[in-house]
Structure formats: structure tokens, C-alpha cells
């Protein structure tokens, strides 16, 4: 239970291959890449470690596991040394109470749980607490029949059905709608993912400053690719914190990609040509300005994020200034929890 399947391995291999081909013509990593250029971190579960390594096998130009150092993150939130946050825990408890109330009020769901428990010969409360959607999804995605048991003293026997799965899945979709309406989860997500987003912002700013200063890369290369291999309970709050509230609950092998882009330096003749074509008014980016792009499962969602949905989309380059992301992470995101900093948000009464 809880191990990565061969189907999961193939999904991550394909993810890696997709991104390898997407960045190949940008020469992101040379064939003789150095350990310094690739950063990988994973939670302590074997499936996240294996998922990350399968991805790198497909992604890296010449995979060599002896060159990969895996940093262990003990928390699924990848919060490092900044995990202590009482307010985040309170928001999570409030969100769990909301989920429980919604499930209890769903009479169709309760009837389905009773039927399933009778079939399997377990107590209804045990089945309800186990939240069987994960197990049933695994069966469905691997084209396996749902669990069956013979009739006996404690069970009616038979098989779980697709109709029962559909009821549980519909409740999950209803929960996502109610979650957005109430808004408590977004507050939890902001505090849960701030440490990870802040670390990401700091890395990007460091690269941007080095680029701006025209500093030469180190002999063994700078870090150019970071991989964080986590869980659905990592991905879901990250999506919410970014303001991607309409994104569905993460499927197996889901991925979020943050890209950094730099506008090319224009020559005097190019600037004149743009002005002659009337293009200057379309884009106000400066030479060498750094931008960010966000993709979810390959779809560009940059202009759906909280930090860039109001930004005028460039016609020639659909990118968002990196400074928008930095300001959001360090200041703007805390307005949702009526605070001005992570520390204030976590400890205020």
C-alpha cells in the first residue's frame, strides 16, 4: 500500500521527457551537467523519491543517479525550518470541520457508505474515516475491478460498484465548490505554502540579480533546475495559495512548473523597427527584464494567478514580470489573512 506502481513510473518518465523536449532548444542543461546545476528535494515516502528519480531519468540529458543529491523534507508542505505556525493549524482544523459537516449533510453519501460497509463487512464509521476515494481511484486508474469479498458472518459479500464511486467522487467535487465559497482553505493554503514560495522567490531573485549584474557563471555551473517531489496535499494548497482556485484537485503525476524568462536586449535598429510598426505601445518591458511563467499540467496559467491576473498581457510575450511574484509572496498574499508578514499572520490572536 502506498507504493509507486509501474503506471506511476511511466507517467513521471513521460513528464520528464515532455519537459526535456520543451527546454531542449533553450540549452537549459548541457549533457555533462554538474551536480550543482540540479537541486532535488523529496518527502520521506519512497513513492515521492521514486517519482522524482523517474522524472529526472526522462528529463536530464544524460541521467546519472550518482550525481543527484536528494534533500529530505520531513513535511509535505516543504516548509523546512519555518513550519511552526499556530494560525495555519487553526485554519486547517476549521477547514476539516467544514468538510465533515458537508459530508454528514449529504444523505446520499451516507447511504452509499452504509452499503459499502455492509458489502465489505466493516463498520460504517471505519469506512467513512478511511475516505475510500484514494483506494477506488487507484483501482480505476489501473483498470482494476473494485474490491470484492465473499459473503460471511460480518459481510453481505459482493463487489463495490462504479455507482458508489460516482457518489463519492461527486461529493469531492461538491466539496471543492463549497471550499472556494467559504474561503477558509485559502487562508490555510497561504500560510502552509509561504515558506516554500518564499524559498522559490529568493532563488529566482538571486538568479535575476546575478543576470542583471552580468556576473559570469561559476566553473561548475549555477543551479538552473529545481525539483520538489511531493503529494496531492502539497500541490492542492500551492494551487490555492497562487490563486488558482478553479484548478481541479491534483490528479496522479500532476505538475506545477515555474519558469524564469529574460527579455532579449534590443539593438537600436530593432527599437526603431518596432516603433515604425507601432509595436512600442504593446509592450513596455525593459531590455533584460526578468519574467515568470507558471504552468499547471502543461497549461499556461500565469494570467490566472493572484499576482498576475490583472497584469496587461503582452501581445508579443505572454509573460508576467518577476517583481509581481516577489511582491505577492513578500507582502500582498498576507492581506488575505489580515496581516503584513508571515510571523504576524501565524502568531496574532
Computed over alpha carbons, the radius of gyration is 24 Å
Helix content: 40-55%
How many helices? The count is: 12
In whole angstroms, the N-to-C terminal distance is 41 Å
The run of helices and strands is HEHEHHHHEEHHEHEHEEEHH
Q: What structural category characterises the helix and strand content?
A: alpha/beta
Please provide the count of β strands: 9
Q: Which sheet architecture does the biggest sheet show?
A: 4 strands, antiparallel
Overall geometric form: globular
Unreliable stretches, pLDDT < 50, 5 or more residues? 278-283
- How would you state the average pLDDT, rounded? 88
Strand content: 5-15%
Architecture overview:
Helices cover 48% and strands 11% of the residues. With 349 residues, it is of the alpha/beta class. The strands form three sheets. Strands 6, 7, 8 and 9 form a four-stranded antiparallel sheet that branches. It has a three-stranded parallel sheet with strand order 2-1-5. The chain has a two-stranded antiparallel ribbon with strand order 3-4. β1, α2 and β2 (70-73) form a beta-alpha-beta unit.
List the helices and strands and how they pair.
Layout: H1 6-23, E1 38-43, H2 46-59, E2 70-73, H3 86-105, H4 107-120, H5 124-130, H6 133-141, E3 148-149, E4 158-159, H7 162-182, H8 184-212, E5 225-229, H9 232-241, E6 256-262, H10 268-276, E7 290-296, E8 299-300, E9 320-321, H11 322-330, H12 342-347
Parallel strand pairs: 1-2, 1-5
Antiparallel strand pairs: 3-4, 6-7, 7-8, 7-9
Helix pairs in contact: 1-2, 3-7, 3-8, 4-5, 4-7, 8-9, 8-11
Please give a quick description of this structure.
The chain has twelve helices and nine strands.
